[in-house]
Structures are given as C-alpha cells and as structure tokens.
Amino acid sequence: MNILKYIQSHLNVKLFLSFVIIIVVFTIVLVAAVEFIMPNAFESHLKFMRTLVGGEGGALEEHDLNLYDSFRSALYASLQFALPISLIAAIIISIFFSREFVKPIKELSITSQKISEGKYDQRVLLPKELTIDEMDELKQLAIYFNQMASKLEKTEDLRKQLIGDVSHELRTPISLIKASMEGLIDGIVPKTEKTFYQVQVEADRLTKLVNDLQELSIIESKAYKLNKEKFDINAVISSVMENISPQFAQKNIRIITNSQDTKLIAFFDIDRIKQVLTNILANAYQYSEEGGKVNITSVAKNDYIEVFISDTGRGISAENLLHIFTRFYRVDKSRSRNSGGSGIGLTIAKQLIEDHGGKIWAESKGENKGTTISFTIPHN
Hints:
This protein is an alpha+beta fold. Helix content is 63%, strand content 11%. It is elongated, with a radius of gyration of 40 Å.
C-alpha cells in the first residue's frame, strides 16, 4: 500500500514505470514473434531454397529440423545477450529523462507554493541563452508562469498602495473634522459660521471620496451596463459646460468650444460621457490658475469622434504623463490634496471611454505649458 502511494505521488516514478512497461511489452512481442511467426516464415524460406537446389526431395529436406533448431538457438542466444544490455540501457535512459522531465515541473510546484504563501517575487529560473521559439512546452509554460507571477506581484503592490492611499485620504478630512469638533466642545474654536462651514467642507470632501471609491469599484468590476443611444456629442458638451460654468467663473477661467460641426452624432451612454467630460474638466479646473482658459474641440473622423480638452494650466512632465490615469496618482500631491482632488476622476474616465470602445490619452509640452486630454468615441 505504501509503494502504491509512493508511485502515485511521484511523477518521475510513474514515467520510469511507463518506460519499463513499454520495454516489457516490446520484449513479449518480440518473443511471441519468434515463437509463432518465425516458424512459418522459416518454412516458406526453406521451400524457396529447395526449389533452388533441385526439387522437393533434396538433401536440404533432411536437415530442415536441425537447421531450424540451430537458427532458433542462435536467435535466442542473441536475444539473451541483447535484451539485458538493452534493458539496462533503457532503464538508465528512462531514469535520466524522467528526472529531467519532472525537474521543471517540480520547480514550478515549489515556486507556486511560495507565491501562494505571499512571496510574489519568486520566479522560475530559465536558460537565458534560448529564445522562446527554441524552448520546449515546459520552458514556455515557465515563461508564462513568471509573467503571471509578475502580474500578481504588481496587483499586490497596487492593492497595498490603494489601501495606503485610501487610508491617507480618509484620515485628512476626518482629522480636520475631529479637531474642529474637539475645539468647539472645549471652547477653543469659536462657534461661528466660518467654523461650521469648514467642517461642512471637510465632510463634503469625505463624502465625495467615498462616492468616488464606490464609483471606481463599480466601474472596474464591470458591475454596470452602458445604455447607449444615438446622440449629439456637442449637445452633451454644451450641457456639461452649462453645469460647471459657475465653478469656473470663481477662478475667472474661460471655457471655449471649437467644434467644426454643429452636430456630431455617435452611439454612447449620455450620462457616462457627461461623467467623463466632467471629470476631465474638473482636472483642468484644478490645475489651472486664475484667468486661465480651457478649449474644447470635437472633430468627426472616419469611424469615430475625437474630443480634445486643452487647458493653459501647470502642465505635466513626460514622466508624470505615464501615470495620470492611475488611481490616486496626482502630479502635485500636496496642492491636489488641499484643493480636494482624489486622484480617481481620470481613472474613471479612462475606464468608461475604453468600455465605449474608444481611447483616451494625455499630452503636454511640459510644466507650465498646459495639458490636453483627448478621447475618442466610435460612431457605432
């Protein structure tokens, strides 16, 4: 029973036994051929030889039995010499190849166990001198395994970063609200309209952050459905501009539209595209100084509509451009936090545009040279 369990739990033993079984079957087939097939073949060959030496009653007939026995004995003598050597060589080769075959699988098993324990930096070692086309299936499997491990490690890093960012973002307004309330209770902070307004502002920031996190979770998990219909993108832009104009007026920021056509019809979810435009314009407002300007341009292309939103704000360096659609990423973290940005708006916008089958990207000539965020929406 222990032997069966040992065999069952060791792949190299299974492979070795499979090779041995093949050898045994081959030996049985060979012996059976000697015993059952060879006599008839030998007799047919003798008949042919008789015709060559002069008829059926020649001298060869007298020696048929002795000749066959001699041939059979010589054949078995040869087999007695060849089979043990072949068997030993086959066993040695079987052991070598079974170990070589199982070795990468064993490495995969050990590495996967370490990853399951939370050690996401573990990788399977691969020969550096070989290209993927020169590798067998097991080595290619190891490559894909390492790629999967890298993605898991990246996901784990993002999860840790997300927890840290969320806790930091929540801590800031909560701390301010707590400090204000303690000051009001102790009588240190005056019970004025300004004090209550500051508490309300921080509570609004906290509510917005929670709502943004909930919205991001819904969008990234695809727990929503796009309600697409044919609509004019310029009408949507005008509607969003009307809603945000009072806010932009507080900083004396002008919003200018430069649409080439009066109507640009596409197939999209109106509410979600409004959300995209609002998030992008909120980003432009946040990073624009007083007296700045925002240009919105919509253009019809062959299969899609392209929208450009350009501002005259602080701009973004080439290094930061690669990360602005990453959740919680902000170019100027201190100023963004004080102005109430959560670093989630552009992440939501990117996901929504991609779910529409479009693309979104950002361009900037550098710091203090403005930023342009563009996106496309397919016509159908």
